[in-house]
Amino acid sequence: MKRINTYLWPTIIALAMAIGIFLGGKLNFNDSPERLFTTNSKKDKLNRLIDYIDYEYVDDINTDSIVDVTVNNILEKLDPHSVYIPKSEMKGVAENMKGDFVGIGINFYAYKDTISVIRTVTNGPSFKKGIKPGDRILMANLDTLYGKKLGNGEIIEKLKGKKGTTVNLKVYRKQEDRFFTVKVKRDIVPIKSVEAYFMLTNDIGYIKVNRFAESTYKEFKAALKYLRKQGAKKLTLDLRDNPGGYLGVAEEMADEFLKDGKLILFTKNKKGDIDKIFATDKGEFEDKPVYVLINERSASASEIIAGALQDNDIGTIVGRRSFGKGLVQREMELGDGSAVRLTVSRYYTPTGRSIQKTYKNGNKDYYKKFTERFNNGELISADSIKVADSLKFKTPKGKIVYGGGGIIPDVFVPIGTTEEEAVETIDNYGYLSYFIFEHLDQDRTRYDDYTQEEFINDFKVDDILFQNFVEYAISTRKLKLNFYDFEDSVKLYLKAALANQLYGDNIYAKIKSTKDAMLHKVLELDKPSVTENIKEENTDSSN
Hints:
- The protein is an alpha+beta fold.
- The protein is 38% helix and 20% strand.
- It is globular and about 70 Å long.
């Protein structure tokens, strides 16, 4: 060991004393014990409180849960869209926004305490191994999956795993009354955000987007390419019930319809910094008619696209006033596997309007305003939409648009009747789908002779199937509705639910489209004379 040069000792001692004096000043030993290890920062106060509870409180307390509550309470004081994501939820949230996960590729029900396959993902791991709709998965490796009333989350966790790993499934095939074992290799399974796409007419394509995830733009481009090959010269982009997602994905999608240099949106942060986003020259559907469908549950990224097109006088926005979310969040990790999505800026449409509705009276009032739309008649009549003249803006071609609480469509379509909305709600709850699964499970060969086109054009739900559903809905689901008052709607939805389990989402959406009021409005607007009248009605020449 080398000895320190004795000539350096005075320097070392002086340095040590200086450091000691510095630290002593920071510790402030003359202060009270309560202030010994604290500064004036607000975050230290919270840390200290948690430490006191951890080490001094009389009972054992899960301080993690206290922290979660504290974080949520803080965020509630900011705005309705700054949210906390606990560690336990981060994986699921990340997968949903990424647009895929690693699994075996099945849609299933936990049917009578057994995992029952509704259908397999086409060309996915289970599809390739011959798993069929109606198969019961009894075991995964050594885990018994039946008779335990497992939740969907628990089932998914047992079937998911690392890419390339295998899982041995014990399966019972009811229609053949046999058991068998199959080894399935886990692989990437997409979580589709482009829910459906098909040709609405000979020249109008239709694309339904349910959220804006990492994979959405790629899915959208693939769907658009397919439709253009089918002859699509016009497009209906369905953003109804789409709550939003990644801002950048919405920008890319809007770029498909806007010419190079057109403003898509701009954002402004607390410092007043403005970031403008412009369209590029890569758009492949410019100068072509486009109809964007929105409703009261279309929010955020959906509103960005609707606003960008409306403010640039591109296409026609059809439907009802959108939700009204004009805030931008950034996800920030908190160091323990959890994260917060914090509002960091506001966005504005090209004309300069903010479509964010007020939240100055708190979150409860904010969401109450949403439900008030049902009560004030706004969803039935466009005349009931309340707008302030101070929030009036004008597009380059002179069309009047408004800020402050959502995108008001160019063409209004009222909400359906109470009966129609009731059927839609029953479908959303999965009751129709569950009933159809049981119906198919009795005999999965009864529809084998139908091609997809024959099913769409020729199949009709008979009175027996309708009556069976009514009895199921009333006796099993305890639904108190007079289904005979809207028999045609119920039969249509039963046919769509059948198509969904037999052929997939596209055929399901195509069948439902035949009675869709907004899509009927699109077909009406596609007539040139009607379209010209719409443009004249939405242009205020006096301003």
